[in-house]
Design goal:
By secondary structure, this protein is mostly helical. The chain has 12 helices and no strands. It has helices at 17-37, 44-51, 55-61, 65-88, 95-110, 113-126, 130-143, 145-154, 160-175, 178-181, 191-208, 211-215. GO terms for molecular function: DNA-binding transcription factor activity; transcription cis-regulatory region binding.
Length: 235
Amino acid sequence: MVEVPPLKIQIRPGTYARGLETVEQILRAALQIMVDEGYRALTLRRIAEVCNMKVGNVTYYFPNKDLLVREMIDSVLNSYEEVFDSILNDLSRSPEERLKSVIRLILDDIQTKKTTNFFPELWALSNYDAVLAERVDNVYRRARGVLNQLIPLINPRLSEGEREVVALYISASLEGTTIFAGYNKPWAHQMPQIENIAIKALVDMVRSITSEDIWKLQDNAETFNPIPVVFPARR
């Protein structure tokens, strides 16, 4: 099983080796706090406590919490992109085999405590924070990049927009298993079977889906009139 590193930190201009070690220590502590204690516990003071340093040392590199969270999210995503790129660029394997590897990687990763706790925390926060919502949307846009590159290799008949919808569907299908079969979730023990079903269903779908399949209900959308439900009046 391929494991995704917790973080991959990009060297910022002016950050020397010693500073990079401190930045990594701070970001690792922040990620661990968010996974173990939740976003509300993520304060600069709490991070300093975990790192056994003064708050001023934390604010030297991250003057505010928003900057730290943005850097943490980017570092988490960078680690995924590195693994996805290694799969995408393995030209010794067919596009379908590479897609299977991406699906399995995502579902394996969902079984970790980090992913089960970290990403749903972001989902909840993004409902109330427009800036964070934009960051989270960007996370998934970038994550779907590997799918958008593999889909046309398997099914070149789809347009660019249709490929993006298919990639979105795959992403939503996989991420949705987090609340059911993620770390310590009720159906976590059935993840091996879920993986096999997902690989079979999603790869077959990518291979065979047509433009007509995607759009055929569109013509009927405006004429669909659901029967209104009338509830009895309260007495």
